[in-house]
């Protein structure tokens, strides 16, 4: 089952205008820096804020705004340093500084520090809920899913439509393999963001694993048609085969074959579908494709032999199983199938000849020893 699944929530960083004017000289510098900051002229703003720090290293405002500037310019490590310094100067002065620090730590994947920082923040600002959500997100990334659930459920009670919270709640239940619960939260998220294709993909895959194939097909078809994302093709083909939509599965495979020219595994999948459709002629036609006939891949050769067996072409199947062994003398599955064929047909000579070849490839694998035991228990006398 697909684990989660490919959705990265974004974090917003809030700004505040606050000053710690000590004298008119510093006041003028901070005011000028604030003007540059509001205009997103971070280079000039940063230069002046750093001048202020040279004169007054304990300037809360200069540290805070330098934290924001570095965060906005994706210099996360520097931002964290300035935020920490501002909080060290005055932990309770500005909630936004604490919040931005936690978000910066989260972006830099310092999840343990997010937990400890959030814990301190909650002591200072007990009515704020955002630190609880960030605790839940950090715990999730630390794979502490039960703790994450406790934090996020607490936040969810107050903010049931928070998209980030809904996403992580869905992901937690997905990790618990409680797929109905996961779908519940993802569907709430989809109602809020109906155009979010990634959420549709997640829900579609979950429906597939819940064996609600019609719903899964509807969502994943829409996703595929809009994105042309072939990464979900296997899931869609699996769904189609479970609702007997073999033609749709074949059309998708043909589309994939255009994208991935001459990939034998795609042809093997098409053969399987034609067999399921009871279209033996089409299956045999593909089996005669040069990319299968000339393959030296033991897995492809074994699959080809297996399909010939299903089509009642035993002699051709034997040819491919033997070819598989020639390419990979340790391909135990091919030996096993051949032994069964020769035993069922009473072909003692072929059986014992293959057994001699098999015993030459002595190995310690569990699969080998199991087949060796079966041979000793069910021997055909020379």
Number of helices, counting only DSSP H or I runs of 4 residues or more: 22
Q: Which value, in Å, is the CA radius of gyration?
A: 32 Å
Strand residue content = under 5%
Number of strands: 0
Overall mean pLDDT: 88
Reading the helices and strands in chain order gives: HHHHHHHHHHHHHHHHHHHHHH
Approximately how much helix is present in the residues?
over 70%
Largest sheet: none
Structural class estimated from helices and strands: mainly alpha
Distance from N terminus to C terminus (CA atoms, Å) equals: 48 Å
- Are there runs of 5+ residues with pLDDT below 50, and where? 1-17
Shape: elongated
How would you characterize this protein structure?
- This protein is mostly helical.
- It has a domain at 333-382.
- Helix content is 73%, strand content 0%.
- It contains 22 helices and no strands.
- Helix 18 packs antiparallel against helix 19 (314-327).
- The radius of gyration is 32 Å and the shape is elongated.
- Residues 1-17 have low confidence and may be disordered.
């Amino acid at each position: 089952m697909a684990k989660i699944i490919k959705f990265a929530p974004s974090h917003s960083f809030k700004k505040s205008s606050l000053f710690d004017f000590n004298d008119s000289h510093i006041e003028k510098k901070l005011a000028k820096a604030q003007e540059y900051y509001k205009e997103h002229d971070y280079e000039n703003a940063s230069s002046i804020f750093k001048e202020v720090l040279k004169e007054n290293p304990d300037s809360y405002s200069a540290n805070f705004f330098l934290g924001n500037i570095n965060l906005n310019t994706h210099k996360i490590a520097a931002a964290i340093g300035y935020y920490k310094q501002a909080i060290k100067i005055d932990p309770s002065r500005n909630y936004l500084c604490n919040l931005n620090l936690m978000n910066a730590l989260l972006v830099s994947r310092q999840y343990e520090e997010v937990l400890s920082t959030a814990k301190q923040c909650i002591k200072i600002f007990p009515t704020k809920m955002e630190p609880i959500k960030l605790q839940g997100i950090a715990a999730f990334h630390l794979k502490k899913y039960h703790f994450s659930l406790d934090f996020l459920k607490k936040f969810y009670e107050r903010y049931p439509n928070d998209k980030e919270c809904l996403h992580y709640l869905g992901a937690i239940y997905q990790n618990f393999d409680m797929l109905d619960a996961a779908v519940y939260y993802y569907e709430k998220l989809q109602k809020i963001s109906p155009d979010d294709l990634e959420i549709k993909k997640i829900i579609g895959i979950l429906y597939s694993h819940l064996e609600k194939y019609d719903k899964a097909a509807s969502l994943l078809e829409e996703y595929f048609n809009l994105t042309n994302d072939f990464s979900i093709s296997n899931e869609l083909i699996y769904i189609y085969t479970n609702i007997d939509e073999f033609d749709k599965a074949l059309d998708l495979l043909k589309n994939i074959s255009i994208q991935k020219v001459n990939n034998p595994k795609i042809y093997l999948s098409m053969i399987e579908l034609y067999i399921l459709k009871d279209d033996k002629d089409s299956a045999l036609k593909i089996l005669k494709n040069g990319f299968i006939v000339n393959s030296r891949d033991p897995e492809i050769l074994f699959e080809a032999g297996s399909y010939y067996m299903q089509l009642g072409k035993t002699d051709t199947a034997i040819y491919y199983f033997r070819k598989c062994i020639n390419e990979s003398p340790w391909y135990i599955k091919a030996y096993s199938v051949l032994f069964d064929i020769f035993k069922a047909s009473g072909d003692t000579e072929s059986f014992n000849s293959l057994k001699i070849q098999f015993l030459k490839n002595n190995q310690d694998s569990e699969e080998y020893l199991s087949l060796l035991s079966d041979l000793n228990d069910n021997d055909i006398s020379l």
